[in-house]
């Protein structure tokens, strides 16, 4: 086929539809061949599918280049218009982290996610933020908390907010802050009593600015947990992975708003330090440069087989990544355009590219077809995913379709051709052998990515049972990763 779309968003939909159609045709032909025991036909189906998907990939790449060449200006203008001035007078399209924005554009053009989002809204109705807050926490009036209201007025002026801010506090020693879905004329910020008592005015300014950032960028539009719960029968694991990746990227955008409000990078760093260490007294001498240097050590630590990095690996970006991303923003021409006291040392393009590289530490590995270990990794993921799906004794068609979303088409075809000829014990034996081979060549971070993706896949239907967890534990042990990591990922997934 020849692709005809004139925008990248439409092209992606067209390409996904073509791949899906090819997979459905392949599955039908493969089932017929397997039923008849025609081994020659099975091989023909696999070869034909590989040729089809290779051509689709080539045509897809070629069309991307054509669209970029012919419509670069149009595409840029479209990107610049996805955020409005509904809530604030600043240029949000200029401020947003590209990784956040790009996922939002993809979600806006993904029919399945939009249909699921509509079901979420119909099922849950409009959340009454203020009513819930008045019942569950204490509203902090200007008389009760004059400092908070000073911070609120400062943020409102800096961001040119078009709504007032109401503050609430609840009893907890944990350091936590959140924002609730806003009304047209009010934003709601809720703080734990522990944070309110132990953070300075400047640090609270960063925290409150960060929470306002979530509101300005309409991050409420994609409630990850509810989308996965409602869409459990429709969405594929790839949707779950993308939603979690967007959730992490959204934090980078919100951090930028926090810095705009507090206007001091060292304050932002000290805030991260308190949140990550729990230490708020003078017992530790905080040094910003030393804290930033932790990012330099992070990759080496993650690749140390004797070190368990699971505490840093969650649905939120871990602190060293966030502070490094914010440091880049603090030195950028982008930030200088919002703050006259800043001399931008880094271009917007260079900043965004480096932050993308940093955030890729928490993304699945980019497995190219010509990577010498790629096929083994994907075979391991396919068989691991199959064993997870079969933990309850039944693997249905939707789960087979889900597995097709995590491996390259030719690997999926080969796996489908051989899977029905294997017993459960034979699959386990192959996974054990693959894990031995991969253990010698994969970094700890690569192993964590594999297990994280398999964990998310197991939760993509909105629930996870003990039998699935046991399979995940066994896969982690085979890769010599602490099983606590599985608990952490599942806990993060359920808490988003």
Polypeptide structure, described:
One of its GO terms (cellular component) is membrane. Its cofactor is Zn(2+). With 496 residues, the chain is mostly helical. The chain folds into three domains: 81 residues; 244 residues, no CATH class; 122 residues, TerB-like. The chain contains 23 helices and four strands. Strands 1-2-4-3 form a four-stranded mixed sheet, with helices on both faces. Helix 7 packs across helix 9, helix 13 crosses helix 14 and helix 21 runs antiparallel to helix 22. It is globular, with a radius of gyration of 24 Å. The two termini are 40 Å apart.
How much strand? under 5%
Total helical segments: 23
How many β-strand stretches?
Answer: 4
Shape: globular
Low-confidence stretches: 72-77, 309-314, 365-370
Structural class, please? mainly alpha
Indicate the mean pLDDT: 81
Terminus-to-terminus distance: 40 Å
In sequence order, what are the helices and strands, one letter per element? HHHHHHEHEEEHHHHHHHHHHHHHHHH
Short description:
By secondary structure, this protein is mostly helical. 65% of the residues lie in helices and 4% in strands.
Q: What is the fold's blueprint, element by element?
A:
Blueprint: H1 8-36, H2 39-80, H3 92-95, H4 98-108, H5 111-124, H6 129-136, E1 138-140, H7 146-159, E2 164-170, E3 177-180, E4 186-192, H8 193-198, H9 201-216, H10 224-230, H11 237-262, H12 265-277, H13 288-302, H14 319-330, H15 333-336, H16 348-359, H17 374-389, H18 397-403, H19 409-419, H20 424-439, H21 444-459, H22 466-478, H23 484-495
Parallel strand pairs: 2-4
Antiparallel strand pairs: 1-2, 3-4
Helix pairs in contact: 1-2, 1-19, 2-19, 4-11, 7-9, 7-11, 9-11, 9-12, 11-14, 11-21, 12-14, 13-14, 14-16, 17-19, 17-20, 17-21, 17-22, 21-22, 21-23
Domain Co-chaperone DjlA N-terminal: 387-484
Pfam families: Peptidase_M48 (PF01435), TerB (PF05099)
Protein name: Peptidase family M48
């Amino acid at each position: 086929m020849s692709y005809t779309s004139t925008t990248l968003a439409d092209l992606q939909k067209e390409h996904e539809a073509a791949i899906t159609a090819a997979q459905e045709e392949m599955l039908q032909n493969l089932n017929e061949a397997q039923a008849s025991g025609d081994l020659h036909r099975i091989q023909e189906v696999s070869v034909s599918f590989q040729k089809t998907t290779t051509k689709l990939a080539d045509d897809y790449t070629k069309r991307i280049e054509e669209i970029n060449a012919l419509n670069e200006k149009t595409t840029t203008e479209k990107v610049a218009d996805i955020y409005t001035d509904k809530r604030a007078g600043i240029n949000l399209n200029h401020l947003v982290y590209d990784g956040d924005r790009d996922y939002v554009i993809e979600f806006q053009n993904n029919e399945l996610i939009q249909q699921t989002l509509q079901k979420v809204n119909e099922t849950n109705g409009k959340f009454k933020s203020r009513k819930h807050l008045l019942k569950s926490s204490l509203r902090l009036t200007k008389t009760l908390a004059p400092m908070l209201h000073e911070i609120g007025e400062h943020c409102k002026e800096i961001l040119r907010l078009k709504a007032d801010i109401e503050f609430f506090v609840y009893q907890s020693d944990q350091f936590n802050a959140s924002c609730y879905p806003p009304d047209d004329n009010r934003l709601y910020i809720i703080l734990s009593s522990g944070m309110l008592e132990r953070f300075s005015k400047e640090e609270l300014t960063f925290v409150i600015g960060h929470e306002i950032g979530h509101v300005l960028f309409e991050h409420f539009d994609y409630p990850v947990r509810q989308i996965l719960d409602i869409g459990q029968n429709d969405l594929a694991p790839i949707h779950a992975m993308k939603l979690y990746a967007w959730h992490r990227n959204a934090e980078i955008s919100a951090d930028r708003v926090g810095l705009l409000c507090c206007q001091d990078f060292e304050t932002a760093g000290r805030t991260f330090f308190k949140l990550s260490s729990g230490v708020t007294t003078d017992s530790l001498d905080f040094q910003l440069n030393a804290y930033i240097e932790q990012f330099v050590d992070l990759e080496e630590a993650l690749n140390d087989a004797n070190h368990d990095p699971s505490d840093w690996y969650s649905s939120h970006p871990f602190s060293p990544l966030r502070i490094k991303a914010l440091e880049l923003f603090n030195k950028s021409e982008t930030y200088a355009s919002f703050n006259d006291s800043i001399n931008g040392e880094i271009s917007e393009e260079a900043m965004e590219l480096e932050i993308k590289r940093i955030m890729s530490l928490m993304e699945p590995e980019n497995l190219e077809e010509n990577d010498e270990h790629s096929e083994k990794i994907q075979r391991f993921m396919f068989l691991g995913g199959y064993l997870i799906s079969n933990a309850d004794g039944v693997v249905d068609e939707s789960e087979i379709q889900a597995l097709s979303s995590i491996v390259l088409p030719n690997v999926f075809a080969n796996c489908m051709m051989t899977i029905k000829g294997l017993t459960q014990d034979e699959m386990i034996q192959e996974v054990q052998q693959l894990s031995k081979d991969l253990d010698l060549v994969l970094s700890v971070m690569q192993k964590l990515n594999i297990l994280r993706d398999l964990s998310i896949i197991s939760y993509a239907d909105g629930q996870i049972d003990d039998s699935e967890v046991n399979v995940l534990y066994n896969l982690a042990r085979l890769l010599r990763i602490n099983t606590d990591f599985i608990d952490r990922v599942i806990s993060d997934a359920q808490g988003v």
